[in-house]
Amino acid sequence: MSQPLPSLSRKPRLELVWVNKENRPRLEPRILIEVHERSYCREDGDDRLIFGDNLLALRALEHEFTGKVKCCFIDPPYNTGSAFAHYDDGLEHSIWLSLMRDRLEIIRRLLSPDGSLWVSIDDNEAHYLKVLCDEVFGRRNFVANVVWQKRTSPDARLGLGGAHDHILVFAKDASKLSFNRLAVSPDKSKSYRNPDGDSRGPWTSTDFTAQGWRPNQMYRIVSPAGAAFDPPPGRCWANVEAMFRSLLADNRIWFGVDGTARPRIKNFLSEREGVAAWSWWDNSEVGHNQEAKKESIALFGPENVFTTPKPERLAKRVLDIATSPGDLVLDSFAGSGTTGAVAHKMGRRWIMVERGDHCHSHVLPRLRKVVDGSDGGGVTAATGWQGGGGFRYFRLAPSLLERDAHGREILSRSYDQRMLIEALCKLEGFTYAPSETVYWQHGHSTERDFIFVMPRVLLFEELVHLSEDVGADRSLLVMCLAFRCESSAFPNLTIRKIPSHFAARCEWGRDDYDLPPGVANS
């Protein structure tokens, strides 16, 4: 008996498959604790440097910053073979894909509707990462694969030396994306001339024909010197005849020095709003590895140079295209702090995350120099930066739950009441906003829905008074260690025990998501 043919009405969904792909972390939404002695706020500002595991930090940012990041520019570990030295290539590759997937999913949620992701990567994982990003962002939101010429000469050790890295660009929603045009570079502006002494200044000319055959664009043109031109075979003029006459009267048509050349249209440098970026970035325009290393030496000294820096001009190109002054920029793999330093100089707001020791040895001193105006390198001159602003330094709070001597999960003893209230607000999806006048308003989810945290046993009489204070037109989530009544006794109160109410919700006590559970760093 013949089998029916499969339906062709729906295309099969192509999917990248790897070992343990289905395993996803249950992330605890940690709170962030400001370390004031490390913050550097000469003026008002809320730029943030976060020290800690970047996956937990991204999760910590979600409640406040979902939909607010205009550009995320990251330079993740390239998985070149040294990142996971104890594992064979297959497992190593799978681990890397899982690590990236978990982070990309949160980054996508953090991006604004018109935001974009830019990921620097080399050939080792670029093509797998492209497919992974297709899954997370959707293929329709792929924008470009920028090729950055990172070297100035071939690698002599190889027969075919690598000269470039990739920067994969994805939109949160391509239908809402609008990139900025780039200023005309000094090299490109040299191609503008003014052979006819036009008062509007230098110009270049472009072809005045278009592909195809359109009846109203097939007229004959006669130059001032009397030379007659018809459109070339297979082409037509670029505009209808009335528009051509208007351009001619405005001295925007060029027939060559002697007036006998085929017509071209004049494009004035003074009228250009910029040029559209393309996907080939020459190192003469955006820098290269050697330039980045020199910048690092100037900032940190030859004995403390960062091993894999990116040139400031590269970050500036990304931010020139993807952002405007005041927009929020995120880099969750801060490295030596290039993205934040450049964003600061360009008047963008920024958040960076770094868990390595170089957060303190490189990023902090670098950002202080930017704020002070004592960093004269990189794009300082190009941006006209002279110092100002500031930044705040945060660390991830410890896990909310810890185990006691009997292995039971209990509230962490490092949490005071303020920290506990903030943590439970974040865990339950409330905005942390303690009222100065209403004792039971510790946070809110709407104008009528509040949360109250009391880390002790609440008696029935206390709950009666609390219900009366809340009133019939408002609702309150009460979080306490225990309570002496039925949980449904009060229609305007939802009463929950801590920590039993949320103990199974997250992975508690885990501070390192660079490797899967049970795998130690080498």
Automatic annotation (TrEMBL):
Protein name as annotated: site-specific DNA-methyltransferase (adenine-specific)
InterPro entries for this protein: DNA_methylase_N4/N6 (IPR002941), N4/N6-MTase_EcoPI_Mod-like (IPR002295), SAM-dependent_MTases_sf (IPR029063)
Record region (Disordered): 187-207
GO BP: any one term: methylation
Claim: Metal-binding is one of the keywords in the record: no
Ranges for domain DNA methylase N-4/N-6: 69-358
Record field: compositional bias (Basic and acidic residues): 187-199
Main EC class the enzyme belongs to: transferase
Catalytic activity as recorded in UniProt: a 2'-deoxyadenosine in DNA + S-adenosyl-L-methionine = an N(6)-methyl-2'-deoxyadenosine in DNA + S-adenosyl-L-homocysteine + H(+)
Lineage top rank: taxon: Bacteria
GO-annotated molecular function: DNA binding; N-methyltransferase activity; site-specific DNA-methyltransferase (adenine-specific) activity
Keywords annotated in UniProt: Methyltransferase, S-adenosyl-L-methionine, Transferase
EC number(s) from the headed UniProt entry: 2.1.1.72
Similarity-based family: Belongs to the N(4)/N(6)-methyltransferase family.
